[in-house]
Amino acid sequence: MASVRVRLLFSPVGVCCRLSAGVGRLILQWPEETLKRGGETVDISCYQNHTRQLAYMFWYQQPPGSGLKLVASTSMWLQNSYAEGYSQAKFEISRDNSDLSVMTIKNVTCEDAATYFCAASDHTVQ
């Protein structure tokens, strides 16, 4: 039986600062990198440490040589919204609490090889 190996990269740390308030926000993702065979599943976790939980978390995909593409967003009210071309059947988003979101990529293929990013905001601007 032939198998395909898929390499998935994740942005491990993202930091942004809101200068007017002098407050830093930290976004952590893990794992930093994973190698999967075709058909396997991968979980990517994203944590944000803002003192008041941010209402929205966004997941992005950046295939090699391409720009960022929005995959989906999730809200504190557990409402997920998927961008065109992406679905819950392939990219399942969970948000068990307001700080942590997990994106599960099911049945990985070569087309899923990319760098994945998460972001958090109080607004729906994507």
From TrEMBL:
<protein>
    <recommendedName>
        <fullName>Ig-like domain-containing protein</fullName>
    </recommendedName>
</protein>
<dbReference type="InterPro" id="IPR007110">
    <property type="entry name" value="Ig-like_dom"/>
</dbReference>
<keyword id="KW-0391">Immunity</keyword>
<dbReference type="GO" id="GO:0005886">
    <property type="term" value="C:plasma membrane"/>
</dbReference>
<dbReference type="InterPro" id="IPR013106">
    <property type="entry name" value="Ig_V-set"/>
</dbReference>
<dbReference type="GO" id="GO:0002376">
    <property type="term" value="P:immune system process"/>
</dbReference>
<dbReference type="GO" id="GO:0007166">
    <property type="term" value="P:cell surface receptor signaling pathway"/>
</dbReference>
<keyword id="KW-0732">Signal</keyword>
<dbReference type="InterPro" id="IPR013783">
    <property type="entry name" value="Ig-like_fold"/>
</dbReference>
<dbReference type="InterPro" id="IPR003599">
    <property type="entry name" value="Ig_sub"/>
</dbReference>
<dbReference type="InterPro" id="IPR036179">
    <property type="entry name" value="Ig-like_dom_sf"/>
</dbReference>
<dbReference type="InterPro" id="IPR050413">
    <property type="entry name" value="TCR_beta_variable"/>
</dbReference>
<feature type="domain" description="Ig-like">
    <location>
        <begin position="39"/>
        <end position="126"/>
    </location>
</feature>
<dbReference type="Pfam" id="PF07686">
    <property type="entry name" value="V-set"/>
</dbReference>
